[in-house]
Design brief:
Blueprint (H helix, E strand, L loop, with lengths): L3 H4 L3 E4 L5 E6 L5 H9 L3 H8 L6 H10 L5 E8 L2 E9 L6 E8 L8 H15 L4 E7 L3 H9 L4 E6 L2 E7 L4 H23 L3 E5 L8 H11 L5 E5 L5 E2 L2 E4 L11 E4 L6 H11 L3 E4 L6 H14 L2 E3 L5 E4 L6 E4 L7 E8 L2 H14 L3 E6 L8 H10 L5 E5 L6 H12 L4 E4 L5 H11 L6 H11 L2 E3 L2 H13 L8 E5 L2 H13 L9 H8 L7 E2 L3 E2 L6 H12 L6 E6 L9 H10 L8 E5 L6 E5 L5 E5 L2 H19 L13 H14 L4 E2 L2 H10 L8 E3 L2 H11 L5 E7 L12 E6 H15 L6 E6 L5 E10 L3 E8 L4 H4 L2 E5 L4 H9 L4 H4 L10 H17 L3 E12 L2 E4 L2 E5 L14
Parallel strand pairs: 5-6, 9-10, 9-13, 10-12, 13-14, 14-15, 18-19, 18-20, 20-21, 21-22, 23-25, 23-26, 26-27, 27-29
Antiparallel strand pairs: 1-2, 2-3, 3-4, 4-5, 6-8, 7-8, 11-12, 16-17, 16-19, 24-25, 28-29, 30-40, 31-34, 32-33, 32-34, 35-36, 35-38, 36-37, 38-39, 38-40
Helix pairs in contact: 2-4, 7-12, 9-10, 12-13, 13-15, 16-21, 17-21, 19-20, 24-25, 27-29
Length: 896
């Protein structure tokens, strides 16, 4: 088997109580432990497992598990070197159905051992083409029957005497993914409790004199008022900063939940091993500079002993809950309690966000500096915030992604409950190099990250400053119902700047209706101009401004209000009075309001209102407009129902798998398919191609042309040889060929110029007029398949008018792909022309997505051009590259 899931020797995952187990194939050396697993079961459990009690049952079961045969697979669960469960299936060597059985050690039931094993067995079975599990159980075996029923898979039951026959369909539908996700979320949150809500903390590496990171963290914990047990580990001291110190972790009077490791890199593995043996549940490693061997040893210790790990090379973690007051960081100050969760990889960015949120008054619920992110990730933190009952705003700064598709599913769910914001770090080549150097993580391309954030509903910003600007508005204001903004100002120039900023941010500036004009002129001073912007003049008073803003807020044609104020000496009202008028006008919400104060010293502030809420005030109109645009996009994303992946007819997945396997058997290193092979693969997915014929002789080309000529008698000839990617650049294309003589001349030209290379030609009828588009897919090793779409033809790379979404595509994703490029108006009938076959275009993209999702070996597919016309859509030229890659299950529960 080449499948990664099947070949992975060990996978670590979390049980329902947050403890870690190892899932791996059973091996010969496990025989005695497996036999002991059964021998130590109570007689009642043995009867339920084997339908009777026999002394030989344990040995027979152990023999079978360690002596596999075709169609048989056994996975065991191991905790701290002890086998605690076994799940196995057997097809009998044939067919797509397999019998399944599960055994869990006595005393370890109800912790999710059996369910986790079955999930991994389901993933392995799917990879081998198994579609159904069957299981026989005594009808009184309620635990195993409940396990099968709660999997989330379609299960049928049938009584056969005292036994129950269960048939489980292995389709990976939304119900199964949601059930698996819910189990994983509960386990993940339970595993983070010792890290983020510990009852006791020990700091290893706290020095006796000032200057060490460990001492700084110990001081922060004590000065921050940590309410639980605090200890230090230092063999040369009995007390540090008034905190009791002990010579080793093993010598501590009680085993701490969380240990902060601030020792030299060379000592980190041994410290982690000592912590694991003592029963510590979580490590926070702030030490930087671990080499590969040290990093491997650290990870191994955490997995062996079931410790969650933050870091290494990080700033620390904090939880501002007053009942805990955990500040295990070495930041300059303590974060203010609040409702924003923060997860960052960069300590510097973390400090900036902690300071910024504290200054704004939003405050922080929990903070995690993930550093090199060996274990705990942004995905873990999102699930924590989702369940902590405090967090209502999530801020992320992630330079790498371990499992983007699992992250995307989590983010889509969490984003419907709270705003999730991120800084899109590493957008340029230089930035990606810096990220890789800083975090030792693989860089990701900008378009792929953008697709991930867009599809998951994440608000992506370009800087920490923009992140805080957007957070201020999303925290304090309701979401708009659209993108229509009314601008009010007491200075014409400020209004113009605000109007430019809104337009550049993609916001609409509607012209006020006559009714609104009359309504506003009735309350504004003489000389006011009611357009958009609304110039209230420098003479506007506090009451007039309040009434003006209030009336706009009640107007149905406006979704948000931006008020640009400058201090003047004209009106009786001072600048502070005008701001007070603004904060008094917010009682008419639920529309968002934002202020721009050009004289403001800070980039963004939150101004208190008379009703106890706040209004964001910005020093620059661009910042206010960006924040409103982010809010409008979030509102639009929330208003749209979750997309669905449409069913497609005429898809032959099994035939496609067979084709790919046969190709890679003949070409072990992979390669580009020739035109005939491309056509066969595209045919498996019903992807339409313009009629064509292959010829490898001059006479064959003439016969093909005679067969394919349309009404006008013209054909196209394209040369082919292995490795040819850009035919136009190589001048390996002849267009508009008429008659046999021109066909022969074209073939001879290609044969002469590309002697020794040319293996044949493709002959096609000259395509009708239409819009030339590009559609393609690339398999990202981290993110999976990315589908691209946009303007095609020879200028596709120069114009770069492309959009991208991660596969599998939903109906909404396809709509977004088609409407996002700048060329989109051409598809919908610009300048009075008829629209292209949009349904056919959607089908093409959905089928391309399906092909990429089905076939991990599909490294690249390039359809250029795709001809879109009112009468249909077809691929004129296709390139496909296959590589020997194994499938991965992105939703299988496992730790990094």
């Amino acid at each position: 088997m080449t499948d990664d899931v099947l070949n992975r020797p060990t996978v670590h995952a979390l049980l329902a109580d947050g403890t870690t187990v190892c899932i791996r194939p059973a091996e010969t050396g496990d025989h005695d432990q497996l036999q002991g697993l059964y021998e130590e079961m109570s007689p009642e459990n043995l009867r339920l497992r084997f339908f009777g009690v026999s002394r030989r049952s344990a040995q027979i079961a152990a023999d079978r598990a360690v002596r596999p045969h075709p169609g048989y697979r056994a996975l065991l669960a191991e905790a701290k070197g002890q086998v605690i469960g076994l799940a196995e299936y057997d097809t009998g060597g044939t067919g797509t159905a397999a019998d399944i059985s599960v055994a869990v050690a006595d005393g370890l039931h109800h912790r999710g051992v059996g369910t986790l094993l079955v999930e991994h067995l389901v993933s392995a079975a799917r990879a081998e083409g198994i579609t159904t599990f069957t299981a026989d159980a005594l009808s009184e075996n309620h635990e195993i029957l409940r396990l099968f029923a709660d999997l989330g898979l379609r299960t049928a039951r049938r009584f056969e005497g005292p036994e129950m026959r269960c048939t489980i369909e292995l389709d990976e539908d939304e119900n199964y993914l949601s059930a698996t996700e819910a189990r994983g979320r509960a386990a993940d949150v339970a595993s983070l409790v010792p890290l983020l809500r510990p009852d006791s903390v020990a700091v290893v590496g706290a020095g006796r004199t000032a200057g060490s990171v460990g001492r700084a963290i110990l001081h922060h914990l004590k000065a921050g008022g940590f309410t639980r047990r605090l200890l230090a580990v230092n063999p040369a001291a009995t007390s540090i900063l008034g905190v009791p110190s002990h010579p080793s972790v093993g010598a501590l009077p009680r085993t701490p939940d969380l240990v902060v490791v601030a020792v030299p890199a060379a000592a980190v593995p041994a410290t982690a091993e000592e912590c694991g043996k003592a029963g510590v549940r979580a490590l926070l490693v702030v030490t930087a500079g671990l080499d590969h061997a040290q990093a491997t040893a650290l990870t191994a210790a955490c997995r062996t002993y079931g410790m969650r790990l933050v870091g290494p090379n990080c700033l620390g973690v904090s939880n501002t809950d007053p009942e805990l007051s955990l500040d295990a960081t070495f930041a300059a100050g303590h974060p203010s309690p609040g409702t924003a969760g923060i997860a960052v990889q960069s300590g510097g960015v973390g400090i900036a966000l902690l300071d910024g949120l504290s200054r704004l008054g939003i405050g922080v619920s929990t903070f995690a500096s993930l550093g090199d992110k060996f274990d705990v990730s942004g995905n873990d933190m999102l699930q924590w915030w989702e369940s902590d009952g405090t967090t209502d705003l999530a801020l992320l700064h992630l330079e790498s992604f371990g499992n983007p598709r699992a992250f995307s599913r989590t983010a889509r769910r969490v984003t419907r409950r709270m705003p999730v914001l991120t800084v899109d770090a590493g957008r340029t080549d230089a930035g990606r190099r810096a990220a890789a150097s800083h975090t030792a993580a693989a860089a990701t391309r900008t378009m792929t990250r953008g697709a991930l954030f867009t599809q998951a509903g994440i608000t992506a910003t370009h800087s920490v400053g923009e992140l805080l600007e957007a957070a201020a508005l999303l925290h304090s204001q309701p979401l708009p119902t659209g993108s229509r903004v009314a601008i009010v100002t007491n200075a014409g120039g400020a209004g113009v700047l605000a109007a430019d900023a809104c337009a550049e941010a993609g916001l609409a500036l509607p012209t006020p209706t006559p009714e609104l004009v009359d309504d506003l002129l009735a309350v504004l001073p003489e000389g006011a101009v009611v357009g958009n912007p609304i110039d209230a003049t420098a003479a506007v008073s506090e009451d007039q401004l309040r009434d003006c803003v209030g009336r706009i807020m009640r107007h149905a044609g406006v979704d948000a209000v931006l008020v640009a104020l400058v201090p003047t000496a004209v009106a009786e009202a001072t600048g502070d009075d005008l701001v007070r008028a603004l904060t008094r006008a917010t009682g008419h919400r639920p529309k968002p309001i934002a202020a721009v104060r050009l004289e403001q010293a800070l980039p963004v502030e939150l101004l208190p209102t008379t009703d106890g809420r706040t209004v964001p005030a910005y020093a620059e109109p661009q910042a206010a407009a960006r924040a409103l645009a982010h809010a409008a996009r979030r509102a639009a994303w929330l208003a749209r129902p979750a997309g669905t992946i449409p069913d497609l007819d005429g898809v032959e997945t099994a035939r496609a798998h067979t084709f790919v396997e046969n190709y890679l058997d003949a070409n072990p290193d992979g390669g580009w398919l020739d035109p005939r092979q491309c056509a066969e693969l595209l045919g498996c997915y019903g992807i339409p191609q313009l009629a064509w014929a292959w010829a490898d002789t001059e006479d064959g080309a003439v016969l093909a042309a005679d067969r394919l000529r349309g009404a006008d008698g013209r054909v196209v000839m394209k040369g082919h040889w292995p490795g040819l990617l850009h035919k136009s650049e190589q001048r390996a294309v002849h267009l508009d060929l008429r008659g046999d003589a021109q066909v022969r001349a074209a073939y001879r030209d290609l044969e002469t110029r590309f002697a020794g290379l040319l293996t044949g030609v493709v002959v096609q009828p000259l395509a009708e007029r239409g819009t030339e588009l590009f559609a393609g897919v690339v398999q990202d090793q981290v993110f999976g398949p990315l589908v691209l779409f946009g303007l095609g033809g020879t200028a596709t790379e120069i114009l770069a008018d492309h959009a991208a979404r991660l596969a599998p595509l939903t109906d909404h994703d396809v709509h977004d792909l088609i409407t996002a490029p700048r060329c989109a108006p051409l598809l919908f009938g610009a300048h009075g022309s008829r629209p292209v076959d949009l349904e056919g275009l959607e089908q093409l993209l959905l089928r391309l997505s399906r092909m990429a999702s089905d076939l991990p070996q599909l490294a690249e597919a390039d359809f250029n051009p795709v001809l879109a016309a009112p009468g249909g859509v077809s691929v004129l030229d296709a390139r496909v590259r296959l590589l020997p890659r194994g499938a991965q299950d992105p939703y299988l529960r496992r730790l990094r």
